[in-house]
Amino acid sequence: TESPQKVFSEMLRVLKPNGRALILEFSLPANPLMRTLALFYLRTIVPLIGGLISGNAAAYRYLNRTIEQFPSGESFCDLMQEAGFRIVRFNPLTFGIATIYQGTK
Fold first, then answer.
1. Distance between CA atoms of residues 42 and 86, nearest Å
2. What sign does the dihedral 45-43-97-27 (CA atoms) show?
3. How far is the C-alpha of 71 from the C-alpha of 69, rounded, in Å?
4. Residues contacting residue 86 through CB under 8 Å, at least 6 positions apart
5. What is the pLDDT of residues 26-85, one digit of tens each?
């Protein structure tokens, strides 16, 4: 996989001046109760249902690990700014289960 910095650099390269990048990422809620529920869902329900449908539950067990390890919130915004984006902000959706990040070239 590519590093976030390489991806951000390529996004900046193809954007017009003052162009905006919008990125939708899974994330973990800041609220402890919602976070616990989201992790239970990602660690238990998603592999169970995915395994029943596809016959390969292991393919769905990586999702929670990638969400838990990937930078989110201010950390994600910091990476965007380091790559050269300006006017960087984020907007958590659905109690923080997903987040939209925005940066301007």
1. 33
2. negative
3. 7
4. 103, 104, 105
5. 999 999 999 999 999 999 999 999 999 998 888 888 888 889 888 999 999 999 999 999
